[in-house]
Each structure stands twice: as C-alpha cells, then as structure tokens.
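U., I forgot to send this yesterday:
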Amino acid sequence: MNKGRALLAAAAAITIGLPLAPADAATGAPARPGGVALTWAPTYMSTQHSFSQTEAVALAKQFDLIAGMPISFKGDVPAMKNVTPDLTVLTYANATFLDGSTAGIPEAEFAHNSSGGRIRSTNFGNYLMEPSNAGWRSRSVDKCHDRSASAGYDGCLLDMLTMGIFAKGYVTSLPRKPGGGAYTQTEWRAQLIRLADQFQAGNTRVHVGNAVSNAFRYWDADVTSRELVLSMPAAQMEDFLRGSGDSASRFPSASDWRGAVDVIRDMEAHGVAGLFTTKLWSSASAAQVAQWQKFSMASFLMGANGNSYFAFTRSRDKAGATGANAPYRMPKNLGSPTTGMTASGAAFVRSFGNGKAVVNPSASTVTVNLGGSYRSLSGRTVSSVTLAPHSGEVLVRA
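Result:
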C-alpha cells in the first residue's frame, strides 16, 4: 500500500456518516443537495446535443448535476432550477486542447514536439496547447467562463486536465518544454496544477477537472493523478471500475475494486467533490448491463458521503448519456450512511438510514443476511441476497 492509501484509512474515518454543509459557487465545487445517492448526467458524451425544454426539465427532476454542451440547455436553466433548486449545470470545455479555430492564436500558445511541430490528438485531431503559456491559460479560463455565462450555466467541466497525453498513441507526439527538453510526466502534472489554480483565481463559477482517469493512475502510476486531483475543488473519474471499451465480462480484481472505491473515499476525505462515471460502451447482453449497473452503483455507495455523483452510461447517444436505456435508477431515499463499508465474508456491506448497498467483488458466490426486509432494485422484497461473482445490489427498507 502506498503512502496515500495508508493516510486514507485515518482520514476516511472522519467523514463516514457525517452530514456535509451546502457549498456555494465561490468554492469552485458543485452544490451539495444532501444525501449520498447523488447522480449526474454526462450529456456532453453523447453524439446528440439538442434537448427540448421539456426534456431538460425532466432531466433536472432526475439528476443532481448535468454536464452538457453550451447549446444543450441554453435558456432552459431557470426552468430546470425551478424544479430542482440545488441542480448544478456545467458546460463542457477542453482545458488543454484547442477545440476551435487556430486563427489569431500565437504560435507560443501551441505545444510543440522535439522537431518544433504542433501536436494533435490522434482521435479528434485538435491541437495540444502549452499549459505553461500565460496566454493559453488566460484563453482557456476565458473560454470556460464565456461558455458557461452565455448559456446561463453554473460553470465548466474541464476536459483533459489529465496525464492522458502520456497514454500510448493518444497524441501524435509528446511535448517538449518551451525552453527545450522533453516534458517529464511530473513536469507536465505541475503545469496542469498551475492551470487548474488559474481557474480558481478570482473564481465565481464551478470548475470540475477531468483529472482522475482511473484507480491505477490515481494510486499506482509512476506519476499519479492524486496530487493534481487534490489541488482542485472537484474532479471527474471517467473510468470508474472499467474502461469504456473493455469487454463486458472483464471485471476488476478484488484489490483493484478496493482501489477504485478508495479513490472516492480519499477525495471525500480531502473535501474534493467527485464525478464518477462507469461507461459500458462495449457489446453486452441485457443481463451484463444489469450486472454492471448494479455492481458499479453499489460500489459507488461504498465510498460516497454526500460530495460525490454517480453516472452509468450504456451508449454514446442521448439514451446512454441520460440513463434512459439503463435498467435501474439510483434510489433517492436511502438516507444518510450509518456505517462505513464493512466486510461480510468476501462481500462488503454499507448501511444507510433507509437502505443498504452490498457488493461482491470476489470470484465466488456469496450470500449476505440483511437483518430485515428490503426491496431490491428489481422490486423484489428480500431478507438476504445471494450475489454472484462481481455483482452488487442496492436495497431500500421495505
């Protein structure tokens, strides 16, 4: 166990079960509506960005936070907040890649490779920018604020405040420092922290950095994302428990599962709001979709204490980004946590004022006695649950 994981055990004990006071936008983090069963809709991940006001209001009734493109909910936020006053609405903005025209942008604001050429994303073709350049930092901050203000949103979800450029094949080439020499991962992370700090300077809006990546990057990579994440008021973990294209039959080991849950607990213990996303964008049967949604939802609830939001997305369209094609919805009446995550054989259980979450991250079948009557996500009333390997359940008191 590394130092960060060792410190977590003590810090998490402080936060378990404690109510969290509402936050205001001046902190840079989303509002805290209360409870732990918070959900969000990553509509910007969809290939479709047009929503009617009727659709927007329906989403506001279902979710606690929504992140979309500026055009998606422009003019609709007042109606959305009329039904859900604590709703947070964020616009997508890319913090380190240029997603518009290159006209008029000084060459010094672009990142360059060892030959002096510009660098592109291999998937999207947009240019990587130089985070140490004051001009780019100001431009990135201004673009975020302009987008959110013009659409009437609360702030921005800032994409690519991550170490993702060091993933194999993500960019056409790696950047060098303006003064010469290739960036090390530690140096790049330091520049991202400076950029994140600039978003908070004189802040009047919410900022969530897409910074965690996954549990390995947060805890165990040679250069982790943890230091970057903990410098922010809020951050996204885009690959909670799985990568979007992983096989539906590929589940994390019990230790890797624990590492993912511990990311939630660590961020909560340090006062960092978290947006956690489980993406099942690979081929899957209806049974596999149900298994993954229950497993990831219950796993999220093992660590959440009221400052984290969960999303399960089945596909890259409106139905997937809004959960319309997912079999279940997060129960909103679980109540506050009354215990931390406790072991029950190979399974783990967490109790709430009006429910329980149960997860079996092991490779063996486990039966857990609930100590009372509860209603499962599928509507069955049970007093015990038998969980297949890599499965979970969320239950509300019957």
